[in-house]
Design a protein that fits this description.
heterodimer, A: about 110 residues, mainly beta, four-stranded antiparallel sheet, 11 strands, about 0% helix, B: about 110 residues, six-stranded mixed sheet, five-stranded antiparallel sheet, globular
Amino acid sequence: EPEVTQTPSHQVTQMGQEVILRCVPISNHLYFYWYRQILGQKVEFLVSFYNNEISEKSEIFDDQFSVERPDGSNFTLKIRSTKLEDSAMYFCASSESRMNEQFFGPGTRLTVL
Amino acid sequence: GEDVEQSLFLSVREGDSSVINCTYTDSSSTYLYWYKQEPGAGLQLLTYIFSNMDMKQDQRLTVLLNKKDKHLSLRIADTQTGDSAIYFCAVEDSGGYQKVTFGIGTKLQVIP
């Protein structure tokens, strides 16, 4: 069964460093999403992406964040200068269309020291 | 925007049924999901229901949707210790590009 994959499973970085979280969505999906979950809190929507551009973003998704689909398979989330409060589990999701269910990846745990 | 509420904690005895409840605010939501998260792990999609359905059954799992009351429930029959986890109710917004709004999660504790 096709699934969304994410790498790495755990990323440790120093405050101020740039990180790139990678996702491989399901191959025929066209809509892509990033969510995050700070420990003990709700899963929060960050951004949705379609047709090579951001279609919606939350107030969390500020200038420190960017997303990209650099090739036909990967979907990345970049945090330019990480802060302690960026420590969270980051989930990628994809869907075939606006009218289809979203499938989530296993998540990348980001720890900022 | 959408708001999803669920209770924080549920404790049941092994072999009993568990019922986890959820309420939401956006009546035109399309997909409604239940995810399971074990400690330190990612989100595992358990089941989902489309908004034109009232009920969906999948082995030990039964999802009930009451659109009038905006109430979603997940029933786990014959609950096992391996079912101990956090269960998230999640609702897909009807507007925009269908972001999913999650509840806080219900921690299910199964007592042997």
